[in-house]
């Protein structure tokens, strides 16, 4: 059985749409470059850009509270910082993530777009070498497509794997085999990762990535079916290198 890296994704702005990558630079002890590099504050968070620290996700716009964000398509150019928001083919707002003052129209659009009133005027957050990951230990997440396929059968509906907002998606493994890798070294294309822990799922996975509607109850389904609410695992890079789509996955 050959297990391979089927897809690579990053999510430049926490809670907004992913970017598909053919390859990705991996740095020892770090998440993917530009993954969750920005967040949109929903009410005063106390985030200090000079001394960045982990904050619970309820401080930001997020899919758990604002599932409608999933229906938006965003673009980000890491070379220039250019950012834009689209829906149904229309360009709705734009700015530059490297120039916060240019983001006023985009932030105002998001505030108006959210169904639940925001707690204060949204503010763009960013700090050098900081990622707004849900995990205190900033790392990557891996999703086994076979696990999503089996869960789809339990749900009675095909689930888009992007619901689980992973960085690395693998194919060729048996369903839920990835949960057995905790504590072991996962090698992808010659790059070694420490499998740290399973990823516990929240209501963000209930949001349909295409429509932005809550059309599933994924954590409940996981608990009822498997007696846990986990799907995916966290990986910490042990070395630096470049990942490529199609790389072979090996377990040490």
- Content of β-strand: 25-35%
Question: Which radius of gyration do the C-alpha atoms yield?
Answer: 18 Å
Adjacency order of strands in the biggest sheet: 1-10-9-13-12-11-15
User: Would you identify the regions where 5 or more consecutive residues have pLDDT less than 50?
Assistant: none
> What is the number of beta strands?
15
- Biggest beta-sheet profile: 7 strands, mixed, barrel
- What does the average pLDDT come to? 97
Number of H/I helices: 3
Give the overall form: globular
What pattern of helices and strands is seen along the backbone?
EEEEEEEHEEHEEEHEEE
The percent range for helix content is 10-25%
Oligomerization: single chain
End-to-end separation = 15 Å
Structural class call reads: mainly beta
Describe the structure.
With 252 residues, the chain is mainly β. Helices cover 12% and strands 31% of the residues. The protein is built from three helices and 15 strands. It has helices at residues 104-113, 145-155, 218-226; strands spanning 3-10, 19-21, 23-26, 38-41, 73-76, 82-87, 90-96, 123-126, 140-144, 168-171, 185-188, 191-200, 230-237, 241-244, 248-251. The protein has a seven-stranded mixed beta barrel with strand order 1-10-9-13-12-11-15. Strand 6 (82-87) and strand 7 form a beta hairpin. The longest helix has 11 residues, at 145-155. The radius of gyration is 18 Å and the shape is globular. The mean pLDDT is 97.
């Amino acid at each position: 059985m050959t297990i391979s890296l089927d897809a690579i994704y990053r999510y430049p702005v926490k809670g907004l749409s992913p970017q598909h990558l053919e390859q990705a630079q991996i740095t020892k002890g770090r998440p993917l470059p530009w993954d969750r590099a920005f967040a949109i504050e929903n009410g005063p968070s106390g985030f200090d850009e000079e001394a960045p620290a982990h904050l619970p996700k309820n401080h930001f716009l997020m899919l758990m509270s604002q599932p409608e964000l999933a229906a938006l398509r965003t673009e980000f150019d890491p070379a220039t910082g250019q950012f834009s928001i689209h829906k149904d083919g229309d360009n709705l707002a734009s700015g530059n993530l490297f120039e916060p003052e240019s983001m006023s129209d985009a932030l105002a659009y998001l505030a108006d777009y959210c169904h639940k009133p925001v707690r204060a005027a949204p503010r763009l957050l960013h700090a050098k070498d900081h990622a707004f990951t849900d995990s205190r230990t900033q790392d990557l997440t891996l999703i086994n497509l076979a696990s999503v396929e089996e869960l789809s059968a339990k749900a009675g509906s095909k689930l888009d794997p992007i619901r689980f907002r992973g960085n690395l998606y693998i194919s060729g493994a048996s369903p839920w085999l990835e949960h057995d890798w905790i504590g072991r070294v996962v090698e992808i294309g010659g790059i070694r990762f420490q499998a740290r822990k399973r990823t516990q799922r929240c209501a963000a996975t209930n949001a349909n990535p295409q429509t932005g509607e809550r059309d599933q109850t994924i954590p409940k389904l996981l608990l009822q079916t498997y007696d846990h609410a986990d799907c995916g695992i966290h990986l910490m890079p042990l070395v630096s290198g470049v990942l490529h789509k199609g790389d072979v996955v090996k377990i040490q």
